[in-house]
Amino acid sequence: MGADRGAFIDQRQSMNIHIASPDYQKITSMHFSRWKKDLKTGMYYLRTKPTANPIQLTVDKSKLVTRQENSVTNGVKRKEDDRKLTPHKEAALAYSL
């Protein structure tokens, strides 16, 4: 262990620690235990878990196919111009809300 060989070498190992939920008491306790063992580096890196998990977003392929089928009207695909939002359509949409 680093504390055992630390007395015989000039440069001692750094401490990389992983704590799921660090708080003041845990970090202070860790520093004091390293200090009592006469280790030079209190802490080099502190790794923690994220406070929240990111939302996992995926697209359901069956809904994507349904969406593509809905964009076809009577077997004929809509024109690109019909899907564009013109200033007149934009105003009508804003007033309808």
UniProtKB/TrEMBL annotation:
GO terms for molecular function: ATP binding; ribonucleoside-diphosphate reductase activity, thioredoxin disulfide as acceptor. GO terms for cellular component: ribonucleoside-diphosphate reductase complex. Residues 77-91 have a biased composition (Basic and acidic residues). It comes from the Eukaryota. Residues 1-45 form the Ribonucleotide reductase large subunit C-terminal domain. InterPro entries: RNR_lg_C, Rrm1. Transmembrane segments: none annotated. One of its GO terms (biological process) is deoxyribonucleotide biosynthetic process. Residues 68-97 are annotated as: Disordered. Belongs to the ribonucleoside diphosphate reductase large chain family. PANTHER family: RIBONUCLEOSIDE-DIPHOSPHATE REDUCTASE LARGE CHAIN, RIBONUCLEOSIDE-DIPHOSPHATE REDUCTASE LARGE SUBUNIT. This is Ribonucleotide reductase large subunit C-terminal domain-containing protein. It comes from Zophobas morio.
